[in-house]
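Model: Ready when you are.
Researcher: Fold this.
Model:
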Amino acid sequence: MKKTIKCPRCGYSMTAEGSPGEIKHLVCPNCGSKGRFVFPVSGDFGVPEERMPRPLGVTILAALQIIGLISAIFSLMLVSGISGKFANLVEEIAGFPLIVFMAIYSMVLVPVSIVLAYGLLKGEEWARLASVWLQIAAVISSIMSFNLFGLIIPLIVIYYLRRPYVKRYFESERGIRISTKAVIAAVVIIMLLMNGYVALMINPLHIYTRINKVSNERYYYGIWGNETQDIEIIFYRNDSFFIENSTDSYWGKWSTGSFPFILKLKWAEGTGEYTAFFTGGGTTIDLEKSKGPSGFFSSIELKKKSEV
């Protein structure tokens, strides 16, 4: 049978053909509103059903996409403001150029978040599917980083988006084209690779290893110098050191603090404590005086000349 159906939103008339009792999903070509029409078993006339109201949780998820986007941009601005020795330290511990990675990550995240938020608000089934897959990727990343608390929100979102009334809002029974699923899968894989890499970098075991690498006392052993300030320091394995410049020279004792990045120098000038960290794979050491006498220097960058 054929029926002329009027859109309840804009009044546009359209024609649909089907069997008695058959359900047709319709999209108004005039205003784009979606609905469904049930062909009557009797001769009664029907109109498309109004689409169910958007669940509050879907609106919240769309808002969280925008909030996450703003957070990513803010983080990029914050990281780009890190400069000098501290930036070198962060990158040495992280194991990758942080600013470059954050810039690439933001370039991927911005369009994904905007499109996903739009799809969720419009009730697009592909947005629901993409959200579920991305949350599964988040679960994998949380496991890789040993972040058990990070599992809570993704699991809640996955459960919520699979609830029958939520799927009804997205009209999940309409299905998704294979090409659309392929695009979603590609985006999810890219996000999983990037998030997975970050997860590995912030894994407690990795952080411990990296901190140990940039603060282990065995990296001190050797001859270090700064030609600009005309200073040379030799750290010996028996916890003694020798320091000299063009006019003076001293012997003293050195030790590392109980907290990483602490170097203590005890010599004729007194006992000085410095914040110290290695960069360039242990070939450069930066010292910043934190307390005690300044001695020959309060801040210095030393290059390793040779082992002892």
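Researcher: Now this one.
Model:
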Amino acid sequence: MKTAYQLSPTEQAKTSREPDYAGPFFSAAIICAWMVSIWFGFFHVRTGLIPDSPGAIGMILWIQFLFCGLFIISHDACHGTACASNPRLNRWLGRIAAGLYAAFDFDRLVPEHHAHHIRVASAGDPDFHDGTEKGANFLRWGIRFFTHYVRLRQILVMMAVAQVFFHVLRIPDRNVIQFWVLPALLSGVQLFVFGTWLPHRSSSRKPFPDHHHARDSNFPWWLSLLTCWHFGYHHTHHLYPGVPWFRLPFKRRLANETAHYDGNKNFFP
């Protein structure tokens, strides 16, 4: 019986040429880099009540980037592409990444994300706004998005973990806030802006090209990586949901070259 986190036959065909080792390698590298960076920020960075040095600010931005990477791992695992050749490992990579990111329940995220792909920009899309003009406002849309996904259980788990940091590991509270709490919150906003709001917001000047109701960013490769681990190539992702994040730039170029769609006319408005 097909489970939600497994690839469909179409997606399996699309990932048949992808290297099986690359997904687990990149996932492990991101998770390890996140752990090492958190540890370094907790124990080896001296900071004031607010970040008062280029090193501290740089560390916050770096950890924010890695938090986004954790989300991208869990996102790819929803499509079975964190490890396409091993569904069990794929599922556990998704669970670990989602748990580390913000105590998310990966098995609950999977059907939610599949609903986004199946019912994109409709009442059944959990990532979309309420369908009204007011609901499309950035702030209203963002509040609806975050309150849908963040549950009380997650908040309680994160609060319990924070107490362990404070009272068991004796980590200074300012380090916990600046190198764990703040990057997590900033990454959530970053993911919403570049992975949901910009790709899926409507524009009277530029109609969506197809039923996916999505657009790509017009960023070069390096900026696409920095902003959202290529999640901004969102229309390409909806066209090829079985392609992992690190292959999206190639798939986008290939789609343009084969005239599957004209990505040059489908940028963020």
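Researcher: Key takeaway?
Model: The chain has a mean pLDDT of 87.
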